[in-house]
Design brief:
The chain has 3 domains: 112 residues, Cobalt-precorrin-4 Transmethylase, domain 1, CATH 3.40.1010; 109 residues, Tetrapyrrole methylase, C-terminal domain (Methyltransferase, Cobalt-precorrin-4 Transmethylase, Domain 2, 2-Layer Sandwich); 48 residues. The chain has 283 residues and is an alpha/beta fold. It contains 11 helices and 10 strands. The longest helix has 14 residues. Helix content is 42%, strand content 18%. Bound molecules: S-adenosylmethionine. S-adenosylmethionine binds next to β8 and β10.
């Protein structure tokens, strides 16, 4: 049989999710290209698999060097299985350049599909699943994170992000500020002992998490897309509300009051208020 690349999904926490076909593929491969060979060795050992395949590292830092070698191996008729540490390779994990290069060389690429955190999270979220955007990891800096959230503000579909426990509250707070009180889900430790799905409008979700001593584990955040109702209040409506509110209260309180009444994001009301008053942002 001619050489090929096989993309093999592995469990995201529960070994029981390791499929029969994934196991047989790893056993039968000539080479397993691993994000981390130690992790894959551990997975094989825990699953009681005895693969004679050669394990080689394939990750972001050695991809450029490894790709020509792996392509040459496929050209020589070898079957290469690509795995990441957990879940489906290429999904915020290495592999897409290797797949693209295989196509460029006319090599076959097949998949042994299986666990993947964003899809598992979507299915338990109770958020619309007919259309969604997977936006990868939220960026670590505040500015880049704001911009990533602002980029999806108008998308009328569920948005899925990966996030770390350490940054979760900061990111949720930025989301609340930019997206308003949208229904949001934190899906944590899926398929593992401490699996948990926390689901509430953003401000409530933030309070619930603030009340905890800490939040740990692997996390997916899902936010509902823009609702058509968001457009019930147009700029003229909000301007009139602002004129009224600003007669009675401070800019900050006026923005909060209108956000509570309309469900619109505070940030967009604030921007409009600044435009009206010609002020400069204070925060
Ligand atoms: N390729 C993987 C997949 O298909 O699931 C995702 C790899 S990405 C580098 C790792 C991130 O996925 C974690 O930081 C976390 O955000 C999310 N994740 C992985 N396993 C998870 C789990 N069991 N529960 C919740 N989120 C998980």
């Amino acid at each position: 049989m001619s050489g090929r690349l096989v993309i093999v999904s592995t469990p995201i926490g529960n070994l029981g999710d390791f499929s029969e076909r994934a196991a047989r593929t790893l056993e039968g491969a000539d080479i397993i290209a691993c994000e981390d060979t130690r992790m894959t060795r551990k997975l094989l050992a825990l699953s009681g698999l005895t693969s004679t395949a050669k394990l080689v590292p394939y990750h972001d830092h050695n991809g450029a060097t490894m790709r020509p070698r792996l392509l040459a191996d496929i050209g020589d008729g070898k079957i290469i299985a690509l795995v990441s540490d957990a879940g489906t390779p290429l999904i915020s994990d290495p592999g897409y350049k290797l797949v693209a290069s295989c196509h460029d060389h006319g090599f076959t690429v097949t998949a042994v599909p299986g666990p993947s955190a964003p899809l598992a999270a979507l299915t338990v979220s109770g958020l619309p699943s007919d259309k969604f955007t997977f936006a990868g990891f939220l960026p670590p800096t505040k500015k880049a994170c704001e911009s990533a959230i602002t980029d999806v503000i108008d998308l009328p579909m569920t948005i899925i992000w990966f996030e770390t426990p350490r940054r979760l509250l900061k990111s949720l707070t930025l989301m609340a500020d930019i997206l308003g009180p949208r229904l949001t889900v934190v899906a944590r430790e899926l398929t593992k002992i401490h699996e948990e799905v926390i689901r509430a409008p953003l401000p409530d979700l933030i309070s619930m998490i603030e009340q905890r001593e800490s939040i740990k584990g692997e996390i997916v955040v899902l936010v509902e897309g823009r609702q058509t109702d968001d457009t019930i209040f147009d700029e003229v409506d909000v301007t009139l509300m602002l004129q009224e509110e600003l007669r009675q209260r401070s800019l900050r309180d006026a923005v909060k009051s209108i956000a509570d009444r309309t469900g619109l994001p505070k940030r967009s009301i604030y921007q409009l208020a600044l435009k009206m008053t010609n002020a400069t942002p204070s925060d």
